[in-house]
Amino acid sequence: MSIHFGAVTDARSVFDTLLRQFHASPQTDTEGAWDLLSAAHIVGQTDFRMHCRVHWAMLAFAAKTRDGGEVLGQLFRLGLVPIGHLFQRLPLGNIGRANVSAFQSMPVAPKLTELITIAKSMSQIGL
Questions:
Q1: Which residues of 21-52 are buried (b: 16+ CB within 10 A; e: fewer)?
Q2: Would you say residue 17 has pLDDT above 70?
Q3: What pLDDT is recorded for position 1?
Q4: Rounded CA gap, 120 and 16, in Å?
Q5: 107 contact partners, CB below 8 Å, separation of at least 6
Q6: Where does residue 10 rank: exposed (0-12), middle (13-18), buried (19+ CB within 10 A)?
Q7: In the 8-state DSSP scheme, what is residue 104?
Q8: pLDDT tens digits along 68-96
Q9: Are 42 and 112 in contact (CB under 8 A)?
């Protein structure tokens, strides 16, 4: 399933809503926190600033949870972001985590689609 937005500003408001939800979430629920970051990655990966911002958030969360493999993966991905945008080689639907290939497009998982749909609804009513 692909996620479509009318304009970059629509994607930006959904992206911002997902990051706000991440920051407000009880980050003891690491799976839920990663789901919010993964959803934000899917929404923001075609915009350079949002793409960088979500990988920085992922790096910070990986460091906070002391996940060394994820820290290294996020450092690698932060290096790839400019190259991917320069050559327009962005694997759409990719969740941006270190446990998946940085080069593989993916179908959007149902639970991430649901998070994105909820964030889109919240952003449309100004929450």
A1: bbeeeeeeeeebbbbbbbbbbbbbbbbeebbb
A2: yes
A3: 43
A4: 10
A5: 1, 93
A6: middle
A7: -
A8: 999 999 999 999 999 999 999 999 999 99
A9: yes
| Residue pLDDT, tens place only, 21-42 | 999 988 789 999 999 999 999 9
* Nearest alpha carbon to residue 83 among 48, 37, 44: 48
What the block records as the tokens of 50 is: 């949002």
Better pLDDT: 56 or 7: 56
Q: Which of 78, 87, 27 is nearest to 54 (CA)?
A: 78
CA atoms of 36 and 19, how far apart (whole Å):
7
pLDDT at 34: 97
- Residue whose structure tokens are 């149902």: 110
Of 30, 46, 29, 22, nearest in space to 118 by CA: 22
Cα–Cα nearest to 43, from 77, 72, 2:
2
